[in-house]
# Entry
Amino acid sequence: MISINDLRAGRTFQIDGVPFQAVEYKHTKVGRGSAIIRIKAKNLKSGAMFEKTFVSGAKVEEVDTEFKLLQYLYRNGDNFCFIDNKDFSQYSLPKSVFDDKEKFLKEGINFKILFWNDKPLLVEFPLSMIFEVAQTTPGVKGNSVVASFKPATLDNGLAVKVPLFVNVGDKVKIDTRSGDYLERAN
# Structure
């Protein structure tokens, strides 16, 4: 059993046999009563978010999860194939595991994947990744006080806004949480 006080962001637990991952933790102490802890958690089976309030000192069941470092190989319909470089076992992960972030998958890149009872629950992406600009219009210098952006398509098909100085063939760093341009990469 895990104390509610230990449920920080990223920690996994289960309620009624359903695995959850804590996203937010808020501890509130009001007046004379006991402290209240609000947890915002993600259902790892369905992907739904929920908020629950606990009294300080409450406990939840610990869930036995494991992270594996797997290398992305290729896409096969709605499934994505990965390989474990340690024992060369292959895994086929459904699209539902990716939370609409499958556009950031690149062949040959390693990703941390959370497993529960040998079932993949979620893929942990790096905070930023580097992609090549496949298509964009030429930037025109002008007298502008604020930063100007133009549309670009990356080698993974993602459409982003990039600064005017970025050209076709340049490598750019993209934030995987928002899909926004961060900086030009070398």
